[in-house]
Write a sequence for this structure.
């Protein structure tokens, strides 16, 4: 089967699909990933075909946007640009579309125009539920009725982000006018299947979800099984007690000097060795007790750490939990407060430190608490055992096979 996976956003929004695509390819399918040009090497290194999507999230605010109004504006600009070339990514012989949270509201129209079956492969829960408020709001639970109401409102706000892109895409595909909200409701009425690539250890399947929505477990970024950590990093890990990793991924662009100073002061106040992962912020520091690194596979590094300090992106949150390593979270924006809250509720992380409130003193206090109280490590280890029983890619493969047979799930 010729499968096209369409995904867009930051690295954390794309990398999991390289592992999913590699598993589908191993099962004999011909897999391509359509995403923005920045991630072409990531896709090709996984042995998958690359299809270019227009737009680059880094040119639309990237990790430096935190205010909700600005997020809406930059998201709309990104989606509008993305939609302009979305139809070009799909080859005429595509048998199945796998659509991410970001690309589904565009992909539905492409599927309609070509008659190609499609399946949702989401990294975030977006369907309204009484169990929790919308993941993008970062708010605490409002109570079951209000959570559901807020979830429906969040979907309507998302529809607005896609409005211009959908109008232009449907015109290009020679389809009759249809609003994003009408398209979404049509998919819901049809019980369009969506498999969610996160662990039930973090988010059990919400009660009240419609048929067709399932939580299957994570899809892990593909990395070379024979890969090794850089020599200087390996030497640092062996030179003393397990260190703390501090990194903010694609967040906090151009804030590296301030964050590096906070990180080093916190580590030394807590009496811990540390690794700074440069990321988009450009963290950097030198010293016998601190090492700066670039990108390395989480799967190789995280099991050898004492604590991970991170921005609570979905992928980093899951990777730390998979490694059985507790966390201190510093959520910046979007869905990050949601994942930070889930980690804290599990007992695998301290209460989140909002990015705007981050100080060396608060970070040092949280680090000391995690290191001294073994309950955090025990909670993370318990979740890791749970995650080891899940096979997210295998569940997608089953759905793909059922799609090929013409049999519903």
């Amino acid at each position: 089967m010729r499968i096209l996976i369409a995904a867009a956003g930051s690295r954390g929004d794309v990398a999991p699909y390289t592992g999913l695509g590699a598993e589908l390819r191993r099962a004999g399918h011909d897999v391509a990933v359509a995403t923005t040009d920045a991630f072409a090497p990531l896709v090709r290194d996984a042995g998958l075909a690359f299809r270019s999507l227009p737009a680059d999230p880094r040119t639309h605010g990237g990790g430096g946007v935190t205010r909700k109004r600005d997020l809406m504006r930059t998201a709309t600009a990104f989606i509008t640009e993305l939609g302009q070339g979305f139809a070009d990514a799909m080859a005429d012989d595509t048998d199945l579309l796998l659509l991410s949270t970001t690309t589904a509201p565009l992909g539905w129209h492409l599927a309609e125009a070509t008659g190609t079956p499609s399946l949702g492969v989401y990294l975030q829960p977006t369907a309204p539920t009484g169990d929790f408020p919308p993941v993008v709001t970062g708010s605490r639970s409002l109570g079951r009725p209000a959570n559901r109401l807020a979830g429906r409102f969040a979907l309507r706000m998302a529809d607005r982000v896609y409005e211009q892109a959908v109008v232009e895409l449907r015109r290009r595909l020679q389809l009759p006018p249809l609003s994003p909200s009408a398209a979404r409701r049509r998919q819901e009425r049809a019980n369009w299947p969506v498999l969610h690539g996160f662990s039930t250890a973090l988010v059990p399947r919400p009660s009240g979800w419609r048929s067709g929505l399932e939580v299957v477990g994570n899809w892990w970024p593909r990395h070379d099984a024979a890969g090794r950590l850089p020599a200087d990093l390996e030497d640092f890990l062996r030179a003393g007690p397990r260190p703390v990793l501090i990194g903010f991924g694609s967040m906090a662009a151009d804030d590296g000097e301030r964050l590096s100073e906070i990180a080093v002061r916190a580590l030394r106040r807590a009496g811990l060795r540390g690794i700074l992962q440069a990321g988009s912020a450009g963290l950097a520091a030198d010293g016998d007790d601190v090492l700066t690194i670039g990108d390395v596979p989480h799967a190789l590094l995280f099991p050898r750490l004492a604590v991970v300090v991170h921005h609570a992106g979905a992928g980093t949150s899951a990777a730390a939990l998979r490694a059985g390593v507790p966390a201190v979270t510093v959520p910046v924006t979007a869905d990050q407060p949601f994942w930070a809250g889930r980690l804290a509720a599990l007992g695998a992380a301290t209460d989140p430190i909002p990015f705007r409130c981050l100080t060396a003193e608060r970070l040092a206090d949280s680090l000391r608490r995690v290191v001294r109280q073994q309950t955090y490590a025990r909670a993370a280890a318990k979740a890791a055992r749970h995650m080891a029983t899940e096979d997210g890619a295998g569940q997608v493969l089953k759905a793909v096979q059922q799609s090929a047979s013409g049999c519903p799930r």
